Amino acid sequence: MLFLRLVLGSIFIVCCLTTLTNGATLAKDEVEALKSIGKTLGKAGWDFGFDPCSQRHGWVDQSTRYYANNVVCDCSFNNNTICHVVQIVLKAQNLSGTLPLNLNNLPFLQEIDLTRNYLNGTIPPEWGSSTGLISISLLGNRLTGQIPAELANLRNLTSLVLENNGFSGILPAELGNLSKIEQLLFLS
Ligand SMILES: *[C@@H]1O[C@H](CO)[C@@H](O)[C@H](O)[C@H]1NC(C)=O
Ligand SMILES: *[C@@H]1O[C@H](CO)[C@@H](O)[C@H](O)[C@H]1NC(C)=O
Ligand SMILES: *[C@@H]1O[C@H](CO)[C@@H](O)[C@H](O)[C@H]1NC(C)=O
Ligand SMILES: *[C@@H]1O[C@H](CO)[C@@H](O)[C@H](O)[C@H]1NC(C)=O
Ligand SMILES: *[C@@H]1O[C@H](CO)[C@@H](O)[C@H](O)[C@H]1NC(C)=O
Fold it and tell me: Which InterPro entries does the record cross-reference, listed alphabetically (predicted)?
């Protein structure tokens, strides 16, 4: 009897855990947004045969101070059935594309960290309308052009790290209005 209970108990636990981790999936429009973002960045290895919020199959990889390959989601929406992307952290991933224009299609995105890649081109002024952003790091890429004043619209931004790129021009005075900023690094 006890044995039977243990067996049934185990089956129950396995079923429920499986449902908990696999039940929620990324919102469809965000899957499309990630496909487009991956293409623009030159990201290899994102396997859309699996849910990007599965935390497996290369979507959340081992990360260290220098290396990271993670898409992090919040899956608590609609009674834990819908996920939204909250972080994209791709450090030292050999990305050699450009920055995507369409972060707006990830309305819950709080952090984008593309540290130490080979990204070139400019920071799109459109990033200034992704108002959920709290943290941006583009440290150590090949970005050029002016730092857009539109970034001053990111009222919740606490960290903006743009060091070691090839930016030119003057720093927009508007950035002085970022009232929550704690870290602002621009050396090049
Ligand atoms: C949320 O999900 C739980 C477990 O699946 C279910 O029991 C509950 O009725 C759901 N609540 C709503 C508001 O749908
Ligand atoms: C990046 O390229 C270097 C040199 O080719 C390679 O050793 C490294 O494994 C690559 N890193 C990733 C994450 O692909
Ligand atoms: C970015 O680099 C690619 C090749 O690596 C080059 O073709 C392109 O012109 C560069 N773009 C800019 C804006 O520098
Ligand atoms: C900014 O942060 C506050 C407090 O955490 C939050 O209520 C608000 O929704 C955030 N604004 C945006 C645009 O995400
Ligand atoms: C900063 O914000 C204040 C109040 O919103 C505004 O009057 C001022 O013009 C802004 N300064 C800059 C440089 O954008």
Answer: Leu-rich_rpt (IPR001611), LRR_dom_sf (IPR032675), LRR_Rcpt-Like_S/T_Kinase (IPR051824)
